[in-house]
């Protein structure tokens, strides 16, 4: 890709897909008309300087130049809005569902069960509308602030420095190995919401179950895994871990590729999460004695420390793999576009 095509690409990538080809053709014609017959690279730079910043030129080509979220942020705005909306609705609906199931009296009639299902469905629907409104409002506010303050996450873009054609030399072609797919960010946010919801409702969900009757109706939680009061004492650290996970996911989304800084942040996150896990698992007061007694009775030949050692070892292995993978992806060579005048 030569300097002229790189400039045209920087303009058209900010435009709607349906008009990109036409605008690209028009820009080629304009640039060629402005160039002398025997032109040099310096001549081309002078022409591009007259045309100005590609971002500003793209705004002039917009059918509706007035906007709330501009073209530089629009795609990211829509992606963040969709991901945040889905995760928020799923988590709020899951919390309502779990609460409804746990508070239902199994001795009630079939009519009462159907009534509960109807009430839960209505609550989930109303909660979803409320959550969607909140997500739309706050995400939009954040992006309006970004738009109006002139901030940008694009590497190499400096709003305080006037644009010059030399800035095109900083355009990077990121290798696929370094790219972070949107699906990875979505899964990370969804997983964080899921484990946080389950953990903070652990006294009703996780523990030793026994079959005292037929089917799911006869499945009873005889001994919760955790002492809920002790678990809640770790709440500040767990909330901090959740905030770090969410922040890391959003950072990945905006950067879109692995960098050394991201690999270091990812390593620090793993160190913190492993440290918290080790402290919690070695805290004997965290676990319900009734649960541990039933576990040791059922698995008499398994040493007491085997369970904790296995969990910690597994998490350490997966963390090491993820840390090494992050640094390997960050170290992948970046191919700078070779801009030569044909």
The largest sheet has its strands arranged as 1-4
Share in helix = 55-70%
Mean pLDDT: 77
N- to C-terminal separation?
9 Å
Poorly predicted parts: 151-160, 334-342
Number of helices in the DSSP assignment? 13
* N-to-C order of helices and strands: HHHHHHEHHEEHHHHHE
Structural class: mainly alpha
Task: Work out the count of structural domains.
Answer: 3
Number of strands: 4
Please tell me what the overall shape is. elongated
Q: In percent, how much strand structure appears in the residues? A: under 5%
Main sheet overview: 2 strands, antiparallel
Cα Rg: 28 Å
Question: Which key features would you list for this structure?
Answer:
two-stranded antiparallel ribbon; two-stranded antiparallel sheet; mainly alpha; 4 strands; 342 residues; 13 helices
Question: What would you say this structure looks like, in words?
Answer:
By secondary structure, the protein is mainly alpha-helical. It has three domains: 3-61, no CATH class; 69-151; 175-342, no CATH class. It is 66% helix and 4% strand. Strands 1-4 form a two-stranded antiparallel ribbon. The chain has a two-stranded antiparallel ribbon with strand order 2-3. Strand 2 and strand 3 (219-224) form a beta hairpin. Helix 5 packs parallel to helix 7 (182-199), helix 10 runs antiparallel to helix 11 and helix 11 packs antiparallel against helix 13.
């Amino acid at each position: 890709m030569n300097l002229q095509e790189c400039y045209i690409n920087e303009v058209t990538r900010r435009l709607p897909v349906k008009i990109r080809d036409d605008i690209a053709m028009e820009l080629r014609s304009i640039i060629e008309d402005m160039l002398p017959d025997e032109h040099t690279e310096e001549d081309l730079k002078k022409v591009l300087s007259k045309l100005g910043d590609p971002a500003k030129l793209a705004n002039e080509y917009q059918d509706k130049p007035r906007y709330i979220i501009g073209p530089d942020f629009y795609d990211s705005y829509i992606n963040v809005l969709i991901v945040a909306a889905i995760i928020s609705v799923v988590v709020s609906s899951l919390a309502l569902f779990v609460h409804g199931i746990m508070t239902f009296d199994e001795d009630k009639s079939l009519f009462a069960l159907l009534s509960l299902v109807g009430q839960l469905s209505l609550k989930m629907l109303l909660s979803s509308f409320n959550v969607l409104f909140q997500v739309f409002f706050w995400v939009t506010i954040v992006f309006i602030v970004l738009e109006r303050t002139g901030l940008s996450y694009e590497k190499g873009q400096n709003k305080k420095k006037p644009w010059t054609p030399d800035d095109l030399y900083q355009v990077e072609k990121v290798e696929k190995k370094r790219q972070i797919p949107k699906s990875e960010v979505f899964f990370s946010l969804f997983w964080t919401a899921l484990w946080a919801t389950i953990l903070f409702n652990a006294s009703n969900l996780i523990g030793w179950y026994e079959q005292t009757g037929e089917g799911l109706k006869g499945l009873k939680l005889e001994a919760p895994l955790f002492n809920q009061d002790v678990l809640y004492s770790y709440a500040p650290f767990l909330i901090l871990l959740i905030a770090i996970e969410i922040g890391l996911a959003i950072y990945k989304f905006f950067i879109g590729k692995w960098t050394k800084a991201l690999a270091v942040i990812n390593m620090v996150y793993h160190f913190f999460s492993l440290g918290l896990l080790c402290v919690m698992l070695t805290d004997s007061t965290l676990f319900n004695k009734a649960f541990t007694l039933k576990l040791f009775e059922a698995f008499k030949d398994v040493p007491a420390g085997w369970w904790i050692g296995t969990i910690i070892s597994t998490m350490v292995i997966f963390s090491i793999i993820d840390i090494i993978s992050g640094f390997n992806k960050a170290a992948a060579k970046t191919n700078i576009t070779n801009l030569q005048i044909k």
